Amino acid sequence: MPNLGAKPKGDKRLHLGDEVEALRDHAALSVRRPVDRGFVVNTPLQRDIWDRIFSRVLKARAVNQP
User: Where are the domains of the chain?
Assistant: First the structure.
């Protein structure tokens, strides 16, 4: 899964990881990467990507959630 977030021009929704591959026009994307040179520089974006991976892709739940 790609570790990035992207917004198409004119769209307010942020697409994460594998959702970006499904978009048609990659030239019109504003791409954000949460990691730069091995350091997490955008913690909220990285957290959103991890949430997508664990909840939707792996279908895992946190132990402390009801």
Answer: 5-57
